[in-house]
Amino acid sequence: MLSIGPGFAVACLESIADAAERRAVVDSLTETGHEIVPISLAQVACFAGNMLALQPVGGPVLLAMSQSAHDSLTTEQRQQLSRHAELLPLPIPTIETLGGGSVRCMLAEVFLPEVAETAAS
Predict the structure, then answer these.
(1) Which of 14, 43, 53, 109 could form a disulfide with 39 if both were Cys (CB 3.0 to 4.6 A apart)?
(2) How far apart are CA 42 and CA 45, in angstroms?
(3) Which residues contact 43 (CB under 8 A, 6 or more apart)?
(4) pLDDT tens across 86-95, in order?
(5) pLDDT value at position 102?
């Protein structure tokens, strides 16, 4: 339903029934500098809200998503996301069909402090 990355937020706003709560989410995301990429409930069913931004050391931001999530996005949505990250669609039908999850569920997030990055250099 929601995936937040550097400068963007993929959000299924129609899944927030209460108008005041939906407005609060939009306001919060906008105020924190996120471009909102709205997705539909049908796109959520294709795991479009289950993306994960990855930042390799010294590399571009990658947006990992399943091929089914990628295929469910419109051209405009892909263009919006491409302004913030390189799209990285991965074919994982077995995980999505039998595992009940998608890309974000498969990956572990590691947040290293800057000290660790400096020491590794």
Answers:
(1) 43
(2) 5
(3) 12, 49, 69, 72, 73
(4) 999 999 998 8
(5) 86
